[in-house]
Design goal:
With 321 residues, the protein is α/β, with parallel strands linked by helices. It has helices at 11-22, 36-46, 54-59, 70-82, 97-110, 124-129, 156-171, 280-294, 302-318; strands spanning 2-7, 26-32, 63-66, 86-90, 114-117, 138-144, 176-184, 193-200, 205-211, 218-225, 228-233, 238-246, 256-259, 265-270. Helix 4 runs parallel beside helix 5, helix 5 (97-110) packs antiparallel against helix 9 and helix 7 (156-171) crosses helix 9. Residues 155-216 form the GFO/IDH/MocA-like oxidoreductase domain.
């Protein structure tokens, strides 16, 4: 079992602490939080050991799980890597792409593994259809959330949209060509609602909308490709796959058949895979343990986390155009 420690004991940090303690692949050693009052209360309520300094915890473990505010990611992640310990860091990887590049270089230099917490890659609904998404040419994603002051220290692009940016980059095997975006600040100092149109070199277009001032929560993505339509509801953990195939010589009486202007007929059928229910956060943490133990590349590498940040920053920059 890998010895694990957690930096940050806020809302998400407490979830990570609980899951690491329950995991069969980790031994939770303890946590560090600079707020001594919070640290003491958590230690008393849950029994997790609170360490007095970051370095003291780093020295006691094999892996550190960084669940601090984004502004602190680079500083603490650098300390973890240069101490020769493996790093799991919540998204976004850092505040700037330059910082992310430095972490990648340091990880290679010190021979440690790193993974970024883009949890939607581990969403059961997305995992059920990921292997069916092949060369999508149009993608539409909506990520809407009710207002919550937590997270408003960064633009909605880095708070919410970056989830969909990472998912899309994982299935579109092409470089970004152009980005057109707009954002509006309603209640925060940074944009609360944003829309981005991302064009890829292979012709794929992704239209993304993110809002943190909606009246209801929604996390959906739709992928359109040749002869197939795939939808993923990340919130409800449901998915749908609609495919088209050539009409057989003797179709079923209840077959759904479409005919285009040229007279070509296609049959519509559903190919919905079973969604295996599991905890996405626990899954991402345990697959990271597998990557460390088996010396393989983590599912969401530091490089991929950096690329999602780079594209997200391009979206933010295009607000100014």
């Amino acid at each position: 079992m890998l010895k694990a420690g957690v930096f940050g004991a806020g809302h998400l940090g407490k979830i990570h602490l609980k899951l690491l303690q329950e995991s069969s692949k980790y031994e939770l050693i303890g946590f560090f939080d600079p707020n001594k009052e919070i640290a003491s209360a958590i230690e008393k309520e849950f029994g997790y050991k609170s360490f007095s300094t970051r370095q003291e915890l780093i020295d006691a473990v094999d892996m550190i799980d960084v669940v601090t505010p984004t502004i602190n990611h680079f500083e603490v992640a650098k300390e973890v890597i240069t101490s020769g310990k493996h790093l799991f860091v919540e998204k976004p990887i850092t505040s700037t792409y330059k910082e992310a590049e430095e972490l990648i270089a340091l990880a290679k230099k010190h021979g440690v593994k790193g993974q970024v917490g883009h949890v939607e890659r581990f969403n059961p609904a997305f995992r059920a259809v990921a292997n069916k998404i092949e060369q999508p040419m149009f993608i539409e994603a909506h990520r809407l959330a009710e207002f919550n002051p937590r997270g408003t220290d960064v633009p909605v692009v880095l708070d919410l949209m970056i989830h969909d940016i990472d998912v899309i980059l994982s299935v579109v095997k092409s470089k970004v060509k152009n980005i057109y975006a707009s954002g509006v600040s309603v209640i925060s100092e940074t944009p609360d609602i944003a829309n981005a149109r991302i064009q890829f070199e292979n012709g794929c277009v992704a239209n993304l909308t993110a809002s943190r001032i909606s009246l209801k929560n929604m996390r959906k993505a739709r992928f359109f490709q040749r002869d197939a339509y795939i939808s993923v509801d990340f919130l409800e953990r449901q998915c749908e796959v609609v495919k088209m195939k050539d009409v057989p010589e003797h179709p079923d009486d209840f077959a759904m058949i479409l005919q285009n202007a040229e007279g070509v007929k296609k049959q519509i059928y559903f190919d919905n895979p079973k969604v295996e229910e599991h905890n996405a956060i626990l899954d991402e943490l345990e697959t990271f343990a597998d990557a460390i133990n088996n010396n393989t590349t983590p599912i969401v590498s530091l490089e991929q986390g950096a690329e999602a940040l780079r594209v997200a920053n391009q979206v933010i920059e295009s607000f100014k155009d």
